[in-house]
Amino acid sequence: MGKKYDEWSGSTWIGLYVVFSKKMEITNKVANSGLTTIDLEEFYDNSTRMVFDIKPLLFQELILKEKDFRAFILAHQWSNYRDALVSIVCTADAIVPNWAYMLIASNLQPFAKKVFFGSQAELEKELFSDAIKKIEPKEYENARVVIKGCSKINVPISAYVEITSLLKPYVKSIMYGEPCSTVPIYKKAKE
Questions:
Q1: Burial of 86 by CB count in 10 Å (0-12 exposed, 13-18 middle, 19+ buried)?
Q2: 3-class SS of residue 159
Q3: C-alpha 48 chain-centroid distance
Q4: What is the C-alpha to C-alpha distance for residues 68 and 2, in angstroms, rounded to an integer?
Q5: What is the DSSP letter of 171?
Q6: Dist CA 148 CA 119 (whole Å)
Q7: pLDDT for 147-186, tens place per residue?
Q8: 85 and 121 in contact (C-beta within 8 Å)?
Q9: Which of 12, 45, 60, 162 has the greatest number of C-beta atoms within 10 Å?
Q10: Nearest by Cα to 54 from 78, 86, 90
Q11: What radius of gyration do the chain's Cα atoms show?
């Protein structure tokens, strides 16, 4: 029969001791990989978002009465939109004259951080696009870039498309995901 645990020879114990007593160094291969990570979540503007919907100002949700609308414009507390990102919409299926949107925008402008026509989802796309346009792509010349995939906020797909298009002419490679687990997107051909 085989040896029992307490019958192992001294040399076996010495070998095991050497293996387990070695100081084990943990190397962070991700930190040493030379990858540059771009986290689109960092481009998120934390300002308050507000929606200005014209629907409640319409007569029977169909018609904009100019006299009533102008009275509302004069009486409304536009300062409530101070430093907010405001999207102007009309959720009713109505024909609203262009000047009505312009009048709202002109009253929001002194207070709001940004005035935008469209849904909140469209506003988010616009905000990320504005932030990405501020990137200087030459700073990433020949870099191996990872566009971080997981985030706590909802980053629009358009932001991933836009940053890929912006960086591709400059970088060595683009990957998506986390530095420890990436999906290759683009790799520059070797010259």
A1: buried
A2: helix
A3: 16
A4: 98
A5: -
A6: 26
A7: 998 888 899 999 999 999 999 999 999 999 988 889 999 9
A8: no
A9: 162
A10: 90
A11: 29
Residues 6+ apart with CB under 8 A from 165: none
Nearest to 112 by CA among 95, 87, 129: 87
Give the tens place of pLDDT for each residue, 18-76. 445 555 554 444 444 589 999 999 999 999 999 999 999 999 999 999 999 999 999 99
Q: How far apart, in whole angstroms, are the C-alpha atoms of residue 181 and residue 191? A: 27
**Amino acid code (one letter) for 134:** K
Q: Is 58 left (phi over 0), alpha (psi -120 to 50) or beta?
A: beta
- What residue type is 110 in one-letter code? P
Residue 129, token pair as written in the block: 């696009």
Whole-number Cα distances in Å, 143 to 162, 163, 168, 180: 18, 14, 10, 17
pTM of the model: 0.75
- What does the block give as tokens for 128? 């990320």
Phi, psi of 77 (to 5 degrees): -85, 85
Using the structure block, give the residue that is written with the tokens 């030379």. Answer: 34
Closest by Cα among 134, 190, 135, 175 to 36:
175
